[in-house]
Design brief:
By secondary structure, the protein is mainly beta. Helices cover 12% and strands 63% of the residues. Strands 1-2-3-4-5 form a 5-stranded antiparallel beta sheet. A hairpin with a 2-residue loop joins strand 4 and strand 5. The relative contact order is 0.23.
């Protein structure tokens, strides 16, 4: 997908990932923040922080912090996501 700017990517990501509840009523995922970590004229690194919690019958209640890191690159027609990395921190 093409974005007009790094700020455009952040705004669209935040809008589409505000909160999420799947088919399991015990699962909840909420977006904490989306921020530009670094930016040069041709590349940008953006981090999105999420909090997820739920209940598993065999494991009990759980919660996790997710960090999604995006690397965006500028092309002649706008910004594109080059890579995406997901990291979990369980409490």
């Amino acid at each position: 997908m093409l974005y007009q700017s790094v700020a455009d990517f952040c705004a669209k990501y935040a809008e589409t990932h505000k909160s999420h509840q799947n088919h399991d009523p015990d699962y909840l995922s909420e977006l904490g923040s989306v921020k530009v970590v670094s930016e040069t004229p041709d590349t940008a690194r953006v981090e999105a922080l999420r909090y997820a919690s739920g209940h598993a019958p065999d494991a009990g209640f759980w919660d996790a912090y997710e960090t999604v890191t995006f690397v965006l690159v500028r092309r002649h027609d706008g910004w594109r996501v080059h890579s995406e990395t997901l990291d979990y921190d369980y409490d």
